[in-house]
Every structure is written in C-alpha cells, then in structure tokens.
Design a protein that fits this description.
The structure holds 2 protein chains of 2 kinds.
Chain A (H helix, E strand, L loop, with lengths): L3 E4 L2 E4 L5 E7 L5 E7 L6 E8 L2 E4 L6 E3 L9 E3 L8 E8 L10 E2 L3 E5 L1
Parallel strand pairs in A: 2-11
Antiparallel strand pairs in A: 1-3, 3-8, 4-5, 4-9, 5-6, 7-8, 9-10, 9-11
Chain B lengths: L3 E4 L2 E5 L4 E7 L3 E9 L5 E7 L2 E5 L2 E6 L4 E6 L8 E9 L5 E3 L3 E6 L1
Parallel strand pairs in B: 2-11
Antiparallel strand pairs in B: 1-3, 3-8, 4-5, 4-9, 6-7, 7-8, 9-10, 9-11
The chains are: A mainly beta, B mainly beta.
Chain lengths: 115, 109
Amino acid sequence: NAGVTQTPKFRILKIGQSMTLQCTQDMNHNYMYWYRQDPGMGLKLIYYSVGAGITDKGEVPNGYNVSRSTTEDFPLRLELAAPSQTSVYFCASSYSIAGSTDTQYFGPGTRLTVL
Amino acid sequence: KNEVEQSPQNLTAQEGEFITINCSYSVGISALHWLQQHPGGGIVSLFMLSSGKKKHGRLIATINIQEKHSSLHITASHPRDSAVYICAGGSSNTGKLIFGQGTTLQVKP
C-alpha cells in the first residue's frame, strides 16, 4: 500500500492564480481531511469528508474548495491564491472519525508559497 | 486560546537522557493522539490512547483523564529521536482532532 499520497510536493504561485492539490489514499478509508500547518501553530482543519459525495467545512475553509467523487481521491482547490495561504498542506485519512479511537494517516505534505 | 497546550515548546537533550513532553487539554476528548514529524518530513501517528499507558520500544505515553493531562516519555534518547512531537485531542463533541502547537526536540550526540 502506498498509503496517502500528495502532489505536488512544492509549488510557488502568484497572487490570484489557482491550483489543485491532489490527495489519494489506497486504504479504502471513509474519512479524509485537509489540514494546513503554519509555523509555530498547530495543524488547522480546512475541510473534511466522511465519504464519497459528502464534504464539510473545518476551522479555516475560506479560500478553499473540495470535492470527493471517489473514496480514494480528495482534491483541494485554491481559486484565487493569496499570501495568507502560504503554508504546508497535509492530507490525511482514517477508517472512522479520527477524533474517536482511530489512527489518522498523513500524506507527505505540499509546501505552497504565494508571492 | 488553543484548547490543547504542549510544553515545553522547545527541548534540547543529550543522547541517553530521559525526555518528557507534556500535553494538557481543556475540552472533553474521546482519545488523545501523539504524532511525530521529522524535519521536512511527513507526520506519523505514534500512539492513540483514551486511558492508562501505552509503550512502544523506547516511547511511553500516559494519560490522566481526570487531570486532562498526557505525557510522552522517551527513554535512552538518541539523535534520531530529534523531531517535532505533536499532541492532538479527539473532541468528544465533534469527533475532530484539535492539535497542540508541537514540541521541537533536538537530541545531541
């Protein structure tokens, strides 16, 4: 199993550009999550999904969109990039809701810089 | 105010030392997670516990539900233990994880 994979690993965007961060898991997990990690801060939940076709907002959803058309894939879309979106983005998955007694598996992260 | 607080934020130790990282939380949780993040690397789950104590190799995690406190101990520390250690509480209300800011550990040879 590859686990959770993310692409790209690094990206530099100009203000106003758009991009999609890809996330795929091969563990047949129902739950998938997108987090951002800013220096000195804890991980913040952007969006999550409890299954194909079902998504919901986390703590910091503004400026982002997601979709979940398959169990495996959970892409994160930035429509109009802003410097405040400079961060490291992690995708994660779990079989059941991570806040319960289930392990959460993380991807390697995408380092995004918006200039 | 973050509902999950870790201490210390930074920790430097000599190889072989016993290390303790603390985590306090102010919300009701159903599970407490400890995660490890190596420099430039991804995040790996170390432990998940809702009571008592768990051990894996040189790592030990404990939790006291009444005091809303958890500790991660590393025995006989080694430079390869150098990483950021993150505590996260699973909210019993929302089911989502609430993360601490992380503790950066450097173990010197």
